[in-house]
Amino acid sequence: MPLIALTGGIASGKSTIARRLAERGAVVVDADAIVRDVQRPGSPVLDAIAAEFGRDVLTAAGELDRAGLASRVFGDPDAVTRLNAIVHPAVREESARRFRAAVDADPRAVVVYDVPLLLEARAEDPWELIVVAHAPAALRRERLISLRGMTEAEADARLAAQVDDARRLAIADVVIDTAGSIDETLAQTDDLWARLTA
Q1: What are the residue ranges spanned by the domains of the chain?
Q2: What angle, 0 to 180 degrees and rounded to 10, lies between the N-to-C axes of helices 152-160 and 137-146?
Q3: DSSP run (H or E) holding 4
Q4: Structure pTM?
Q5: Average pLDDT in the 104-124 region?
Q6: pLDDT at 160
Q7: Which residues, other chains included, contact 183 with Cβ-Cβ below 8 Å and sequence gap of 6+?
Q8: Where on this chain does ATP bind (predicted)?
Q9: What are phi and psi of 5, to 5 degrees?
Q10: Are 139 and 22 in contact (CB under 8 A)?
Q11: Concatenated DSSP letters for 52-111?
Q12: Known binding-site residue numbers for ATP
């Protein structure tokens, strides 16, 4: 079972690559979706977050107020470390369960872990390949503003909070250049798929 890590900075085109790999037959395990699942109401993770950061990080319905929590921890490295200590072990456990389930269903499955925080949390895991979606920071900033409706200040803050591109590229086995057209990104992704299934 090839276990592939797919990562990239915000607005790097990682989701486009993940969707294409899924269309081609990969089992894509989405780290962000797992984070949402392990933080659902009634979960031990959500209880621990509320105990650590206060009940006011919950909505009236008992769900995590993601924006409220983000504003509380954003820019505070100690708070981020405390939050990660709660969330990352649960995500690691659940992702491993999903990897095993994919292989149990099909021992020849190509499993792709779509993981934004690979360098921060999972770089040392035994990946067969690390694939990095890459576009220059200036282009990603433009995408955040034009496609996601962020202000310039919000886009700059998001980019500044992430691992720098050089560190991400340094761990890459494969780089998919997403600065061009979507068709160019998809063509590179198809080439990767052909390599994974050869």
Answers
A1: 1-26+110-198
A2: 140
A3: strand 3-8
A4: 0.90
A5: 91
A6: 86
A7: none
A8: 11-16
A9: -100, 130
A10: no
A11: HH-GGGB-TTS-B-HHHHHHHHTT-HHHHHHHHHHHHHHHHHHHHHHHHHHHHH-TT--E
A12: 11-16
CATH of domain 1-26+110-198: 3.40.50.300
Query: By C-alpha distance, which of 45, 47, 69, 75 is closest to 56?
Result: 69
Q: Which structure tokens are listed for 52?
A: 């650590």
Dump pLDDT digits (tens) for 41-69. Answer: 999 999 999 999 999 999 999 999 998 89
The residues, any chain, with a CB within 8 Å of residue 144's CB and separated by 6 or more, are 10, 11, 150, 154, 155, 158, 159
Task: Indicate the angle between helix axes 44-53 and 77-105, nearest 10 degrees.
Answer: 180
CA atoms within 13 A on the CB side of 187: 7
Amino acid at 29: V
Length of the chain: 198
Which CA distances in Å does 6 have to 49, 50, 56, 101?
27, 31, 34, 19
**Annotated binding site: which residue ranges?**
11-16
